[in-house]
Amino acid sequence: MNIVIIGAGYVGLVTGVCFAELGHRVVCVDRDEDKIGLLSAGRPTIYEPGLEEHMIRLMSEERLSFSASVVDTALADVVVVAVGTPQRMDGASDLTDLESAVRSFARFLREDAIVMIKSTVPVGTNERVREWIKEETGRNADTVSVPEFMREGSALQDSFHPDRIVIGSDSEQAAARAADLHAPLTSNILHTDLRTAEMIKYASNAFLATKISFINEMANLCDKVGADVQVVAAGMGMDPRIGNAFLKAGIGYGGSCFPKDTHALLQIAGHVDYDFKLLKAVIEVNQTQRKRVLVALGEQLGALEGLTIAVWGASFKPGTDDVRSAPSLDIVPELVSSGAAVRMCDPAAELGFRRAYEHPQVTWHKEPLSAAEGAHAVCLLTEWPVFTEVDLTLLRSVMAAPVLIDGRNAYQGEAVKEAGLYYTAVGRPVLR
Ligand code: NAD
């Protein structure tokens, strides 16, 4: 098939690679000409393990190409829409990019083409997509909602081996074509109506966010009663009804999906006068949880004015350069306001973070140990292996004071203590 993907970001680029690997001819279209220039030169614009190798080979085999023009849509059997749907000030999804993308390619659509929406969109949006196309062309187009579940950091693996594919449609023929396209990837294909497919995406992310906020509340309680949340989570996870995924206490979730999708779901509920109390609490717990690093620093060091704090990790999780809604973007400005000098390190997210936040009190360092030099405390915000595998004795030797705040419960407490460091994690005993 000829496939055109609109929006060559995390989802669009990885989806393009995946469909091209299946043998289709894929053109990724983006309105950002700089991005298209880099991609056309074989340079991935995001960090995602394995992406560059796939991209370069597929481009040389002429199965994957990039374009800044929606005119390419005229060739497509399937048009996949993967533009961003960021959070508006009021919490709802901003559909401006989606609407302008759809209106821009509508008149080039072939009569037999299907439009597949992969962007995460509020319930009812796929129906609006059809209306926008009708307004532009006077024609009814077949739309299918195929929400995306890939995780940054393992996006290629997730695309090649998805747990499930959800296909929402009210056209049997379009649903069957979407199913054919995904059949080589999994036999777990769930067919639904459009609104249910849209809701499955929000329900999945909200549920995972709930698990995280739940275990973080348990961690806070463990702190007060002297229990170890790591062991509590392990014990809970042995029950297959609970499962051990997403039961890792820490400083909360971030990224381009959970924060915005939980807020968007709250808005969806609000529009139909439904008071989603549980979800409100999930969001509130997550926001408060980030402050734990600052509270722990205060407990260990008192006022931070004039002190040096090393921050390890800027991306919202390891394996990605994405800093959207990352805890680092809340924590670092707070450290700066409290008068600390901040020494940062991240293997992939320096550029992204600096685009969002720069300050003369913040310096960047290529190696974890250089960032820790002269620091009164090291705060681990993202559990990249380069941080968790560091030689702790060496770490202690370069620091000015022995404080390690582990926002991700990534170290063995006893090993930290043996290296001569004071150790504060989340929901685990403080060791010194
Ligand atoms: P992104 O910001 O990385 O990429 C979006 C791309 O769309 C950008 O390159 C932008 O330039 C382009 N774009 C915007 N408007 C356009 C237009 N009119 N024409 C052409 N290109 C246009 O976003 P993303 O992280 O890939 O997310 C895309 C969608 O997928 C969102 O709805 C998101 O919620 C959803 N999603 C993301 C992930 C993830 O892990 N990132 C996972 C599942 C679902």
TrEMBL record:
Organism: Paenibacillus sambharensis
GO aspect biological process, one term: polysaccharide biosynthetic process
UniProt similarity note: Belongs to the UDP-glucose/GDP-mannose dehydrogenase family.
Name this protein carries in UniProt: UDP-glucose 6-dehydrogenase
Residues annotated as catalytic: 257
The protein's enzyme class: oxidoreductase
One function term, GO molecular function aspect: NAD binding
PANTHER family recorded: UDP-GLUCOSE 6-DEHYDROGENASE TUAD (PTHR43750:SF3)
Binding-site positions, substrate: 149-152, 201, 246-250, 254, 317
Positions bound to NAD(+): 30, 35, 85, 120, 152, 260, 324
Keyword vocabulary terms for this entry: NAD, Oxidoreductase
EC number from the UniProt entry: 1.1.1.22
Swiss-Prot/TrEMBL catalytic activity: UDP-alpha-D-glucose + 2 NAD(+) + H2O = UDP-alpha-D-glucuronate + 2 NADH + 3 H(+)
SUPFAM superfamilies documented for this protein: 6-phosphogluconate dehydrogenase C-terminal domain-like, NAD(P)-binding Rossmann-fold domains, UDP-glucose/GDP-mannose dehydrogenase C-terminal domain
Domain UDP-glucose/GDP-mannose dehydrogenase C-terminal, chain residue ranges per copy: 310-413
Pathway: Nucleotide-sugar biosynthesis; UDP-alpha-D-glucuronate biosynthesis; UDP-alpha-D-glucuronate from UDP-alpha-D-glucose: step 1/1
NAD in keyword set: yes
